[in-house]
Design a protein that fits this description.
The complex is a heterodimer of chains A (about 210) and B (about 500). Chain A has about 210 residues and is an alpha/beta fold. Chain A is about 55% helix and about 10% strand. The chains are: A alpha/beta (about 210), B alpha/beta (about 500). At the A-B interface, helix 5, helix 7 and helix 8 of A face loops of B.
């Protein structure tokens, strides 16, 4: 492994946001491609972080810092890609459903998915079914993620899936739902493709749905 | 003559000094002035603007200190709530402590099969009956979220299940303003009209701002309706340190207080003197699992701190204890339940809720409730302190028995031994008796009591004519909501 890729990996692990842009430039100056930097530097760093987190040796704020560091490098790489080329492993749109303002779970999943190499478009909170539909049309994501904390607003996940069906878009995306009151049975019943009980499990689910795991 | 003699009739407990509380309050006023709070309800925003709040962006409200301080001064320091049995009263005033359940857990562990499933109407009724029977549970919140009824009106159904099962004072939740109004009119049927309710409310309404620093439309409309009808309103944010609030203990208290006071100001502007209760389930987000912890020592520490702030402000307090992150009622549940109950009692909070929560508030457990009742009994004995006077100092008795004797036959012993706390489920038997009785752990004994209560306890029924009127109100609500699409909850 080239020295600069190793340093990129380390910067991701320790969350050195200041160093990452400079290291990324240095790697490009050495003639490495965006994909080589991603596969040889950024992803090994995030894989290590993921394993440490699962082992209980790294904690959420540290994982998020690593994910943000990785995003810093990706921002430097993206302008160099040819039109239509992407280094993201997949694209997801995410939002808290209509009537619900609780978003920490959704934000956490979004950040962890970014850390796993996904491009995530965050639609925010109180997102109406129509807004999900419009975003699917515009962004053409692989995954639609919906979140709700309240049992009363959970129903809007089903309504959003119905809206996707009506718009003829349901088959073009995989739908993930989450939130404390959501169960696997509920997810199945409303026609979602899956649910997960934590942010890391949601990342695994997303990878699984896209055949990446 | 004697001087400088001080009596502690109860234990004394402090976490924050007055100076520290004042500093937290000043920081809160600064947050309310500088950052402000979002209020997503036009009527309330207008009310705030007319009264000197600085509103930008239609919903961002910044509060001058005077507005906050006037609201706190206007709010009553004392609230009396009475159950369906009107003699079952709780008096919410400084350092008078009452325990009760928490509300709306989506799941139950089936008491017979242990299956984790959603709460039914019957489960809600059973939870209410169990709470009714337990002497140390002073008020009842509907422990489970009733899921086999129309979801848009579940709160009214759940309220009826509570009324059927328990005659104690209630704390209720509501879907929205209309749900609160329906429950209010149901309560008025029970107590004999609006004036009777206002004099002695049957329930307190639980209202939750969204952390950080937001009041939803529904939450704000509940605040407005409650104030208008003098329904005591708990304003209880649920921030998590490091997640939806600062990671520091003082920082999360500042934010929780700001959220709470924003609701209290709205209530006091709507109806000066409206009864309000400070609240806050103030805990950490676990940084490995991201759960909102109901068993963390920080929850207990912060709840006591916030209670001390409420007493300093002169407001009744809604606190939290008797809950756990354990998935079942095991040793962890006992530790987290006992410590939180003891400290919450010491803190002097008025309403201490969430007794019976397991799995971080996702499961409402009958077993946790019954075990906690035993813990509260034990803790109450400690809260009784040590009375010191001529009779209790017992110098004469000690002289009579003298060195080497015993006290078992003394009249003094007869007069006082019944003050000892007598456990019901905690075991003190000799080992051979314990083995002969089946070597049962506390958990087993608790569960046996749960089953016995489910199968035998009969609450005082609601008079049939009243119950029919309550069902009419619910039927009308269901009718209004029948057009709503119904997705059953699996």
């Amino acid at each position: 492994m080239s020295d600069v890729l190793e340093r990129i990996s380390k910067a991701v692990v320790v969350g050195d946001e200041d160093a990452i842009a400079k290291l990324t430039r240095a790697a490009l100056d050495e003639g490495l491609s965006a994909k080589e930097i991603l596969d040889g530097g950024l992803m090994p760093g995030m894989d290590y972080v993921g394993a440490e987190f699962k082992a209980g040796r790294m904690f959420v704020p540290e994982v998020l810092l690593s994910a943000r560091t990785m995003k810093g490098s990706m921002a430097a790489l993206e302008p160099l890609l040819a039109a239509g080329e992407s280094i993201a492993v997949g694209k997801a749109i995410m939002g808290t459903v209509e009537g619900d303002l609780h978003d920490i779970g959704k934000n956490l999943v979004a950040m962890m998915m970014e850390g796993a190499g996904f491009q995530v478009i965050d639609l925010g909170v109180d997102v109406a079914p129509d807004a999900f539909v419009a975003s699917v049309k515009k962004e053409k994501p692989d995954i639609v993620g919906m979140s709700a904390l309240l049992t009363t607003t959970m129903r809007n996940m089903g309504r959003t899936i119905d809206a996707l069906k009506e718009a003829g878009l349901r088959d073009q995306v995989r739908v993930m739902v989450g939130g404390a009151p959501v169960t696997a049975d509920f997810a199945r019943q409303i026609g979602a493709d899956g649910t997960a009980s934590s942010a890391p499990a949601a990342v695994d689910l997303a990878k699984g749905l896209l055949g990446l795991a | 003559m004697r001087v400088n003699y001080q009596i502690n009739t109860t234990p004394q407990f402090r976490i924050l000094s007055d100076d520290q509380i004042e500093e937290i309050f000043f920081a809160t006023l600064e947050v309310l002035r500088q950052t402000g709070v979002r209020v997503y309800q036009e009527e309330a925003v207008e009310l705030l603007r007319e009264n000197g709040a600085y509103v930008t962006d239609d919903t961002l409200v910044r509060f001058p200190a005077s507005l906050v301080e006037e609201a706190v001064a206007m709010a009553p320091t004392r609230i009396v709530v009475a159950g369906r049995d009107r003699s079952r009263k709780i008096t919410l005033e400084k350092d008078h402590v009452f325990f009760g359940t928490g509300s709306d857990c989506p799941f139950i562990r089936d008491p017979y099969t242990n299956e984790r499933r959603r709460y039914t109407y019957k489960d809600s009724y059973n939870a209410a009956r169990i709470a009714d029977s337990l002497p140390h549970i002073d008020f009842y919140m509907p422990l489970g979220l009733t899921s086999d009824v129309p979801i848009g009106t579940y709160d009214r159904h759940q309220f009826l299940a509570s009324l059927q099962g328990v005659t104690k004072p209630l704390v209720v939740t509501a879907v929205d303003r209309e749900g609160l109004a329906d429950q209010y009119y149901m309560a008025c049927e029970v107590v004999g009209g609006e004036e009777a309710f206002q004099n002695e409310p049957l329930f307190v309404i639980y209202i939750e701002p969204s952390s950080p620093l937001e009041n939803t439309k529904d939450a704000t409309e509940k605040v407005l309706f409650a104030a208008e009808k003098n329904i005591p309103a708990i304003i209880t944010p649920c921030p998590s340190a490091g997640g939806t609030a600062p990671a520091t203990m003082a920082g999360i208290l500042v934010q929780a207080l700001a959220e709470c006071l924003s609701g209290i100001v709205i209530a006091q502007l709507q109806n000066p003197g409206a009864p309000v209760i400070m609240g806050g389930v103030v805990t950490i987000i676990d940084m490995l699992t991201t759960i909102y912890s109901y068993g963390a020592p920080e929850l207990t520490l912060l709840s006591a701190g916030l209670t001390e702030i409420s007493k300093w402000l002169g407001l009744p307090m809604f606190s939290t204890a008797g809950c756990t992150d354990a998935k079942t009622v095991d040793q962890q549940a006992a530790i987290e339940g006992a410590i939180s109950i003891a400290v919450a009692a010491l803190s002097g909070a008025s309403l201490i809720h969430d007794v019976g929560y397991i799995e971080s508030g996702l499961v409402g457990s009958y077993d946790m409730l019954v075990m906690s009742n035993e813990i509260i009994g034990l803790v109450k004995r400690i809260m009784g302190g040590i009375p010191v006077d001529e009779e209790t100092l017992a110098v004469d008795v000690i002289a009579r028995v003298g060195p080497g004797g015993h006290f078992l036959g003394e009249k003094h012993t007869l007069r006082h031994f019944r003050e000892f706390w007598l456990p019901e489920l905690i075991d003190r038997t000799k080992v051979d008796d314990w083995e002969a009785a089946g070597s049962k752990t506390l958990g087993v004994r608790v569960h046996e009591k749960v089953i016995k209560l489910i199968e035998t306890y009969e609450p005082e029924p609601i008079p049939k004519d009243v119950e029919n009127r309550l069902k009419d109100i619910i039927a009308q609500a269901d009718e209004r909501h029948k057009a709503e699409e119904k997705v059953a909850l699996a």
